[in-house]
TrEMBL record:
This is Unannotated protein. One of its GO terms (biological process) is alkanesulfonate catabolic process. Transmembrane segments: none annotated. Gene3D superfamilies: Luciferase-like domain (3.20.20.30). GO terms for molecular function: alkanesulfonate monooxygenase activity. SUPFAM superfamilies: Bacterial luciferase-like (SSF51679). Keywords: Flavoprotein, FMN, Monooxygenase, Oxidoreductase. Pfam families: Bac_luciferase (PF00296). Residues 25-322 form the Luciferase-like domain. Coiled coil: none annotated.
Length: 376
């Protein structure tokens, strides 16, 4: 197998704590705290780091990326952007500028979000996401965009600023609903999944390969999961139990409800995993669902000693997953543990200055609708 990409998670959305749901244990996002996480991830040897995005919680990921860019030398930044919050040409200009500041180390996590205060059903929201992704890709490829879509109506040359490679950085995108899967198959480069049982992950990979093939494309696959690793399995399980020892169900439900994605298909699936878990919260060997009691979104962790954690990740690699986004609580401490105990055992390598070769945009629905490609 080719080397995989291993990323860490910078807790920009007030998602850091020493114990879930315990007053006084949380670590609100700040420039200094999140900066330290990113720099620790670079020192520890991670290939990339996800900068998440939320409106109500935390700090802005695009602004943070501009600040941290000058402090890093090797690690890539996976910058999350929420569709619809910025006019597409201006978003393209910002991202191209970030890529220039990073000397080609930018990757993009597309979030199919509602606007702050907006209520939009999944169907139109994902149609807006697809139109945004296709127009954004065209601009970052240096193409003129001429399109009159349902949400994106543009007749405009690309911004002058270009990415270092001259191409659009890889776009990471996730979602379990039918609409989300079709958007990913049509326009994403890396399809991201949240934790699930091994058989369920295999089924999603097979489904997404078939969907992408119908669009004349190929996808890479990514897996977003928490990690609790210690020298022994008993120590890891004890650390996991401690993480939720002060959590009650009412507090956990209140924390989950704060997220804008709390009713999505993917979040519901994380709830189903918790319901199917044993009394200790494990839904299959080394996959623990306890974190999801107090977190919307990615709600499970690989828990075990270094050999068990690596074995779990290697098993996913046999399915074709080659990009992992790991996290753990507190993020700075667990970053250091994973860097010491797990990374040296994985065959991974950063992909800096090796841009992914994209499928021709002729396969994307927006192009069929009339994006005119004028190279610059």
């Amino acid at each position: 197998m080719d080397p995989c990409e291993v990323s860490w998670f910078a807790a920009l959305c007030d998602d850091d704590t020493s114990q879930l749901g315990v007053p006084g244990a949380s670590m609100p996002s700040s420039w200094a705290h999140c900066r330290d996480i990113v720099l620790a991830a670079e020192r520890g040897g991670f290939d990339n780091v996800l900068l998440p995005s939320g409106y109500a919680l935390g700090i802005d990921g695009v602004a943070f990326a501009g600040g941290i860019a000058a402090l890093t030398e090797r690690i890539r930044l996976l910058v999350a952007v929420r569709c619809g919050e910025l006019w597409v040409p201006q978003l393209a200009r910002q991202l191209a500028t970030l890529d220039e500041m990073l000397d080609g180390r930018l990757t993009i996590n597309i979030i199919s979000s509602e606007l702050p205060g907006e209520q939009l059903d999944g169907g139109p929201r994902y149609r807006r996401t697809l139109e945004t992704m296709d127009a954004l890709r065209a601009f970052l490829e240096g193409d003129r965009v001429d399109v009159d879509g349902e949400f994106v109506r543009l007749h405009l040359e690309p911004p002058r600023v270009r990415t270092t490679s001259g191409h659009c950085p890889p776009m990471y995108f996730g979602g379990l609903s039918e609409d989300a899967r079709e958007v990913a198959a049509a326009s994403a480069d890396v399809y991201l999944m949240w934790p699930d049982t091994f058989d369920a992950v295999a089924a999603v990979v097979d489904d997404m390969r078939a969907r992408a093939d119908r669009h004349g494309r190929e996808l890479r696959f990514g897996y977003r999961v928490h990690v609790v690793v210690r020298e022994t399995e008993d120590e890891a399980r004890a650390a996991a139990a401690h993480l939720v020892a002060g959590l009650d169900d009412e507090t956990g439900a209140r924390i989950r409800a704060r997220s804008l994605d709390s009713t999505s298909v993917g979040v519901r699936r994380q709830g189903e995993l918790r319901d199917a878990a044993d009394l200790d919260g494990f839904v299959e060997p080394n996959l623990w669902t306890g974190i999801g009691r107090a977190r919307s979104g990615c709600g499970a962790a690989i828990v075990g000693d270094p050999d068990q954690v690596v074995a779990k990740l290697e098993a996913y690699r046999t399915l074709g997953i080659d990009a992992f986004i790991l996290s753990g609580y507190p993020h700075l401490d667990e970053c250091r543990r994973v860097a010491e105990l797990v990374l040296p055992r994985l065959d991974h390598a950063p992909l800096v200055h090796a841009p992914l070769v994209h499928a021709p945009l002729v396969h994307a629905p927006m192009v069929r609708a009339g994006v005119r490609r004028a190279r610059h």
